[in-house]
Amino acid sequence: VKILSVIGGLLGSLFFLGFLFLFGIYDTPVVALVMGVILILVAVGIDRNETSVLLDTISISNFLIGGFLIGFGLVEQIGGDENLLIFVAMIIASVSFFFAKGFMLRMICVVVFNGSWLALILENRINSAFHFQIIFLLAGFVYLSFFEAKLISKNAFWNSIYKPLHAGFLVSLSFALFLLANSWKMEVYLFNDWISSVAIFLANLFIVFKIIEGLELSEQKNKMWIYGLSVLVFLPTFLMPSIGGAILVLLASYHLGHRAGTALGMVGLVYFGMQFYHDLNLTLLTKSIILMVSGVIFLSAYYFYNRTFTGDLIEDKELN
Asked: For 135, phi and psi rounded to 5 degrees?
């Protein structure tokens, strides 16, 4: 329902913008600028006072239309300074996030802020800095995933912003991984991919550490086996860091019971895996062998885990 409300907001925004341009709003940029500010204030006002699917859709539509009109008005008034427009978008998203109260609008603000950061990197042709944004998104998502209790127990404000902040980082990280995998197809060249590969690899190991901590395994040997198998699985993802990122999202979300994150992680893992297989400059026979070996590794890890660790975990619980 929430996804449909966002889609409805996007479609409604497009139709209303078409209506405005049909009636000549492009001839009066000052009016567009003023109208944009008013619509964003209305969006935040609705979001602060009402919570329903219909009003969420109206609020999202007003916010998106208002942001577009402000951008259009600024372009017409001061010229096409893209950096200024990006900074304005970041400021609007930041201020709206703190004044809004609803889940969807706050999540969109987080996505807009992170998207504006990406636009700033690409606009100024500092593409290698994209990998540091990946690190920021990884750190934010992992911290929000594994320190939920600590954050929501701080105060009422953190309790209210936690879910949209977590969802916003999840969506932003998923988009960043998609761009990382498809940048060359869009003629956006992100150099020094090893930075993202190392960051994702270390983040995955940290998640494995937190999962082991949660399982409360007593045998040091079992912990070493888990780390060894994890390294064996994660090392090949250096060739396609997006696959490692999808594994990270899947591990963190499944461990925490986050259904949307689990679904995104599974879809990402399948998509990035198929893309990597398709883009390999190898013969069909070699590709088939790689798939078979990968399948054997994963099935062996699953079998080994079930035979070795499940029994130990039951034993530990019985002893406790």
From this structure: -60, -45
Residue 190 C-alpha from the chain's centroid? 18
Nearest by Cα to 52 from 97, 102, 9: 102
Q: What is the pLDDT of residues 123-141, one digit of tens each?
A: 888 888 899 999 999 999 9
Entry field: residues in the chain? 320
**Residue found by looking up tokens 């936690």 in the block:** 162
How many Cβ atoms are within 10 Å of 71's Cβ, its own excluded? 18
pLDDT digits (tens, 9 = 90+) for 237-289: 888 889 999 999 999 998 888 888 899 999 998 898 888 777 777 677 777 77
Instruction: Give me the pLDDT at residue 19, please.
Output: 67
**In b/e form, how buried is each residue of 47-65, taking b as 16+ CB within 10 angstroms?**
beeeeeeeebbbbbbbbbb
Instruction: Classify 72 as helix, strand or coil.
Output: helix
Nearest CA among 69, 254, 264 for reference residue 177:
264
Residue 235: DSSP 8-state: G
Which pLDDT value is given to residue 33? 82
The two structure tokens encoding residue 260: 């949307």
Indicate if the pLDDT at residue 312 is higher than 60: no
Q: What is the model's pTM?
A: 0.82
Element holding 241 (H helix, E strand): helix 241-256
